[in-house]
Amino acid sequence: MYLKKNVKGSAVRELCKNLKKLGYYSGPETELFDNDVYKAVKAFQMQNVDSAGRPLVVDGIVGPLTLEAINRRPEGVAPPVIGPVETKPSLANGGSPTARAALKKALDELADGACEIGGNNCGKYVKKYLNGVAEEGSAWCAAFVSWCFKNSGHPMPFKYTLGARNLLGQLKAKKLVIKPTLANPPIPGDIIVWWRGAPNGWQGHVGFVLDYRDGVVRTVEGNKSNRVQIFSYTLDKIDRLLGFARIP
Fold first, then answer.
1. pLDDT tens figures, 213-247
2. How big is the chain by its Cα radius of gyration, in Å?
3. Do the domain assignments include residue 81?
4. Is residue 87 part of a domain?
5. Mind listing the pLDDT tens digit for each residue in 104-130?
6. Domain hosting residue 166, numbered range
7. Is 137 left (phi over 0), alpha (psi -120 to 50) or beta?
8. Is residue 84 part of a domain?
9. Most-buried pick from 12, 63, 80, 117 (CB within 10 A)?
10. Domain count along the chain
11. Bridge-partner residues for 229, per DSSP?
């Protein structure tokens, strides 16, 4: 049996109950697999492994491997460490003063526990990042990046935007898009953008590069899960990548 978006039934209610016990879900124990449940499942998958010790596929679908991992995970026990999980990481060398200052704001928000509160894309942090440009409930990944630059103490290198692809387009127009390689990798404060939905569609996602080491790039992102969080990727195998940009 697979549980995924828009499925209804008692199995979804049980899933909500178990994810709540493990600290991944804070909503009502509903029988509808809605967007809040979907994001909770993805957050769980990002931090847990299957019975063979392999990272779970992060697709928001509860199949046999994800369900087994949820049932196996003891309540109140920290997840296995797949990648760095610091909330107060040090700021690595490299990057321009503007980019580093924006990244520092992102890390301050991470340390403050910035997250959604009271529902999907809701709460005081989300409203702060949306900055009055859109109503609470709107996607906030690009808003988070924009807010960090706006409050960095340096001039904004792009216009405040809630669109990841719009942000990349602005930086592309300024010829700030780069193509990092293993020999010339990303540096702190670089911006990374992915596509969502379809490669040529309108949806996207954006975050900051935190650091790079031994082929792995770490990022600080908002709205990939329900909070500001650190993620790790193998540089030459990043899925759905649209590009990087470097702020001078």
1. 888 889 999 998 788 988 888 888 788 899 999 99
2. 18
3. no
4. no
5. 999 999 999 999 998 888 999 999 999
6. 97-245
7. left
8. no
9. 12
10. 2
11. 221
Within 10 A of 1 (CB to CB), how many other CB atoms are there?
Answer: 9
Q: Per the domain annotation, does 82 fall within a domain?
A: no
Separation between Cα atoms, residue 131 and residue 49, nearest integer Å: 37
Can you tell me the distance from the alpha carbon of 76 to that of 113, in angstroms, rounded to the nearest whole number?
A: 19
For tokens 């990481």, name the residue: 89
Q: What's the CATH number where 26 sits?
A: 1.10.101
Q: Are 187 and 212 in contact (CB under 8 A)?
A: yes
Query: How far apart are the C-alpha atoms of 28 and 140, rounded to whole Å?
Result: 23
Query: pTM of the prediction?
Result: 0.70
The tokens for 73 are: 């995970």
Among residues 72, 105, 120, the one where a domain terminates is: 72
Q: Is 116 left (phi over 0), alpha (psi -120 to 50) or beta?
A: beta
d(CA 127, CA 66): 32
Closest residue by Cα to residue 42 from 113, 114, 120: 120
